[in-house]
């Protein structure tokens, strides 16, 4: 028996999965599911009756939680589908750098500077509110190794103190 080479273990992760299985018939509208390999929020579901050859089928339409793109899939109701773990967290906006990165502070005081201003209307609204001196809370959604700001709101708790 030779010595174990440590280099083969360097790339290991924690072993935690980004998804968990759930029976298709147990999924619900406004829940999350993996469609075409992307984490999606279910916006429409319909079940067809059991046919001559067996299973009732569930037709799902979902919106990618990061890009907003529409995805569809059909799955037998008794089969399992992957459901992504989705974490939602609010951060206080501290600053916006010149290169478009946000400086965010979490509840426990930790600082993050690795998220960019979101594209589209949300990004413009965020910049406008910040430029007007508003205290802003950014809602960050994290799933499957991706994360982005999906919503903003005025932090009224801070504005009352000023």
From TrEMBL:
It is found in: Cytoplasm. Signal peptide: none annotated. Pfam families: eIF-5a, IF5A-like_N. Residues 85-153 form the Translation initiation factor 5A C-terminal domain. The keyword Cytoplasm applies. GO terms for biological process: positive regulation of translational elongation; positive regulation of translational termination. Keywords: Cytoplasm, Elongation factor, Hypusine, Initiation factor, Protein biosynthesis, RNA-binding. Transmembrane segments: none annotated. Coiled coil: none annotated. The keyword 4Fe-4S does not apply. One of its GO terms (molecular function) is ribosome binding. eIF-5A seems to be the only eukaryotic protein to have a hypusine residue which is a post-translational modification of a lysine by the addition of a butylamino group. InterPro entries: IF5A-like (IPR001884), IF5A-like_N (IPR048670), IF5A_C (IPR020189), NA-bd_OB-fold (IPR012340), Rib_uL2_dom2 (IPR014722), Trans_elong_IF5A_hypusine_site (IPR019769), Translation_prot_SH3-like_sf (IPR008991). One of its GO terms (cellular component) is cytoplasm. Belongs to the eIF-5A family. NCBIfam families: eIF_5A (TIGR00037). Translation factor that promotes translation elongation and termination, particularly upon ribosome stalling at specific amino acid sequence contexts. Binds between the exit (E) and peptidyl (P) site of the ribosome and promotes rescue of stalled ribosome: specifically required for efficient translation of polyproline-containing peptides as well as other motifs that stall the ribosome. Acts as ribosome quality control (RQC) cofactor by joining the RQC complex to facilitate peptidyl transfer during CAT tailing step. This is Eukaryotic translation initiation factor 5A. It comes from Orchesella cincta (Springtail).
